Predict the structure.
Amino acid sequence: MKASKYIRRAASGCRRPVWPRIDAGRQDTARADAAGPRTFAADRNQRRGTGAPQAVGAGNLRKNLAVDTLTHALSGALLARALTPPAGASSLRRTSALFGPPVPAGHAVAVGFLAAAFPDADVVLKWVSDLAYLRGHRGVTHSLLMLPLWATLLGLVAAAAFRRLDAWRRYGWLAAGGIAIHIAGDWITQFGTMLLAPLSDARFGLGSTFIIDLVVTGIVAGGLAASALLPRSRLPALAALALLPVWVGVSVIARNEALGFGRAYAQQQGLAAARVDAAPRPASPFNWTVVVFDGRAYHVAHVNTRRAEPLHAGPEDNFIRRYSAPYLPLHLARWERRAKFGDGSHEALAREVWQHPEFGFFRWFAMFPLVHAVEDGARTCVWFRDLRFEFPGRSEVPFRYGMCRGAGSGWVRIAFEDIAGRSALR
C-alpha cells in the first residue's frame, strides 16, 4: 500500500495525512525520552484528560486472563455441540466405526468445554518459576504436535468419568476439537503460540485480534444460548462457528490497512530499512497501534483505520467508547518516537544489559523491546518492557524485566511489578 492511497483518500473528503518530520519534533520527543519510566498510556491520558479510559490495573489484568480462558472453554463447548447430532440421527450410526459410539449431547459439551480450557493449565508453571512460565506459556499444551497425546488422555479420563469406556474414542475426538479451537483462538492474537513445541520454541501468530474480543465472546455465547433453546438442532452452533472466521477476516483486513499506513509513513519519512508492524487493540477491530522501527527508535501511532473524525468520550460514557476514543483517524495520527536504548547517557548501559547472556529470555520473548527505566546509583538497574503490551488506558504494563548489580557484584535478573516492587527472577 503506497502513500498515494492516503492522498487519494484525502481528496475524497478526508484531510491529507500530516506527518511531522522527526527533526521538527525532536525537542518534544527528547523531553519525552528524558522523562524516565512514563508509558505511552500515561502520556496519552495526560493529553486527553477526562476522555481517556480508566487505568487497567493488575487485578483487571487477571480478570481479563480469566475471561480469555472462559471464552476458550465456551468455544470448545460450542464446537462439541456442533459435532454432536441429536440422538437417533443416522449420521451417528455412520460415524460410529471411526469415532466410536454416540454419547449424549451433555457429555459432549462438557468434554469440549473442559478440553478447550485445558491448554491454559500451563499456568501451573508459575509455581515452578517466573522464567518457566514466561518460556513455557502457550508451549507444549498449545502444540499441534502434542495435541493427539492430550486428546487421547482427556478422552480416556472422560470415558472413565462418565463410565463409558466403550466411547473413549468419541470423547477423544471431542477433546481434540476443543484443544484445536483453543489453539486457533490463541494463534489469531499477537502473543504468539509455540505450535511446534517441544521441537521448536518459535512463536506463531496471525496478530489480527486483541486477546479479549467481546464480539468473539458474544458470538460463542450466543451460539450456545441458541443451542440450549433448540436442543435438537445443531444449526445455531454451526451458524456461530461460521461467523467466527468472518469476524476474524474483518480484523485481518483492518490489520492490512494499519500496516499500509505504517509503510506509507516510513516511505514519507525516508526510513528505507524500516520494520513495520501493528498491534491489535481493544474495543474495535479497527483500533491499532502502528509501530515503525528504524533500527534505533520506534515510531508509534494509535489509530483507527476507518474513523473519519475523532471520537470524544468522558468518564460517564461506556467503557467501549472510552477505550476506543484514544485511537485517531489516520489523517490525524500523532506519531511518537521512543529510542530502543534511550537517547541519553545511559544508552551504553542499556545495550550492555540487552546483550547480556542471562537476558536472552527477554530477547526471545519481546517483539518491540524498549528500555523502561535506568537507575544508576549505589545499585545499578536497567529495565526493559515490550511495546506490544502498552495501550492507552493501561497504567501497569506487564512483562517488565531487567538486570541489577551492586558495587563489585555481577548482573542479576530482576522482575518489576508495580504492586510487589522488584524481585529476583527465578
About this structure: Residues 347-424 form one domain. DSSP finds 15 helices and ten strands in the chain. The first strand starts at residue 275 and ends at 280. The first helix runs from residue 3 to 11.
